[in-house]
Specification:
26% helix, 177 residues, binds zinc ion, alpha+beta, 8-stranded mixed sheet, globular, 10 strands
Length: 177
């Protein structure tokens, strides 16, 4: 979803407001230099393995926007045990996997600057029909991210998040106005 808005961070009217943010990789990978990445990591679009020891899958953490059927969408990574990683891979192409497999346990693998520390937060991983990324549900119910996910957020908070993540990204200011 996109719309124009006057930005609370810089005061400019941005032409597009994406109610989403996607982390390209787990933070463990992002924090490595190129040599380490090449030597230690196996990368796929939705799966990373580091040192044959750390296993990650990509998922979607949705925060409902109160009073609408929209969500603010965090595209994040979860670390999982190897058995979970293998089971998810095994059923990747199986029709009905969302009904027959899981939910699984994992931990968030991204630190979100907009919240108290989110790295390693416990999440429940819910598989979705083929072609759709798993949903991540924060399990630590007293954490701000869990509270926002459970209760939803007002539209102004969604706009605030959108503006924060827009300006946290390189080139956030470079769009035409
Ligand atoms: Zn701005």
């Amino acid at each position: 979803m996109a719309e124009s808005f006057k930005c609370a961070t810089c005061g400019i009217v941005h032409e597009t407001l994406e109610m989403s943010f996607a982390a390209d990789s787990p933070d463990m990978y992002a924090n490595m230099n190129r040599e380490e990445r090449d030597a230690r990591c196996i990368r796929g679009s939705d799966q990373y393995i580091i040192d044959q020891k750390w296993f990650f899958i990509r998922g979607c953490l949705e925060i409902p926007i109160v009073g609408s059927d929209e969500v603010f969408l965090w595209g994040l990574w979860a670390s999982v045990r190897q058995e979970v990683f293998d089971e998810i891979e095994d059923c990747w192409e199986i029709d009905g996997r969302e009904k027959s497999r899981g939910p699984f346990k994992g931990r968030l693998a991204n630190s979100l600057a907009e919240y108290p520390e989110t790295l390693n937060l416990k999440v429940r991983i819910l598989l979705q029909p083929i072609g759709t990324r798993p949903l991540l549900v924060v399990e630590e119910s007293d954490h701000m991210l869990a509270i926002e996910q459970a209760r939803g957020i007002p539209r102004r908070r969604a706009i605030e998040l959108a503006s924060l993540v827009l300006h946290a990204q390189p080139g956030g200011h470079s769009e035409p106005n």
